[in-house]
Design a protein that fits this description.
Layout: H1 24-75, E1 91-92, H2 107-111, E2 129-130, H3 137-145, E3 149-153, H4 160-168, E4 175-179, E5 187-191, E6 194-198, H5 205-213
Parallel strand pairs: 2-4, 3-4
Antiparallel strand pairs: 1-6, 3-5, 5-6
């Protein structure tokens, strides 16, 4: 027989601490601690999720930048030096005067140009754009002085889908497109002091000519405006 515990003379088994009834204050404290612990775990999960999201976003951003760089590097073509572009059949004129006049100018008699590619001209330039009617030469030449390219076409040779193709092949600014009855070639491209007769709307020399002379810095007034002056008849755009 086991000796009696002097502190427990009745011999009852001791009550474990966990089995003791908690006071209201202790229950509240335990609930508070449980909520704090749950909140801390929630915050830790949110932090981990933010880190993962930021990491994934960074990886995605780097991938997008790399893709863009790859596309630019692989698809871009270095600009050619205009001086290096050779154009078969190109005719040029140097030391052309660029005085203003209110008189009609006979460009063929004075300079041997049809249509004109420089010379004396009206003080008001023709606004660049797409025209479906012939334009006054003296105003168009002034636009060439500002770096525009004037593309003319014979309406007997270029119409319908061909005309749409020609329009679509041109830049959106510093371009004049207009018809000229009886033009010697289906299409003629003119810039200040330069001109080429083209076989049609799909003549590759048109692109070379525009690349060489469009907004050239060698014109008398480079960078001057090609709008804000005169709209000729039949302007479409």
């Amino acid at each position: 027989m086991s000796p009696r515990d002097p502190k427990n003379p009745g011999g009852e088994a001791p009550v474990p601490p966990a089995a003791k009834k908690l006071t209201v204050k202790q229950e509240r404290e335990q609930r508070r601690l449980a909520k704090v612990e749950a909140f801390k775990k929630q915050q830790a999960r949110a932090k981990r999720n933010r880190i993962i999201a930021i990491s994934l976003s960074s990886v995605a951003a780097v991938a997008v930048v790399a893709l863009i760089v790859t596309i630019v590097v692989t698809s871009s073509t270095p600009a050619r030096d205009p001086e290096s572009i050779d154009i078969a059949g190109l005719e040029t004129w140097s030391d052309i005067d660029y005085t203003h006049t209110n008189e009609d100018v006979d460009y063929e008699a004075l300079y041997g140009m049809t249509p004109p590619a420089g010379g004396s001209h009206n003080q008001y330039w023709l606004n660049c754009g797409i025209y479906e009617e012939p334009q006054t030469e003296e105003n168009a030449v002034h636009a060439l002085e500002h770096g525009a390219v004037w593309v003319t076409y014979n309406p007997e040779d270029v119409a319908g889908d061909d005309l749409e193709t020609l329009r679509d092949s041109l830049p959106g600014s510093y371009i004049i497109l207009s018809p000229i009855e009886g033009l010697e070639a289906p299409v003629v491209a003119s810039a200040w002091g330069a001109q080429v007769m083209l076989d049609g709307v799909d003549d590759e020399r048109l692109g070379d000519f525009i690349e060489k002379y469009w907004q050239s810095g060698d014109v008398p007034e480079p960078g001057a405006r090609c709008d804000g002056a005169i709209d000729g008849p039949g302007k479409l755009a």
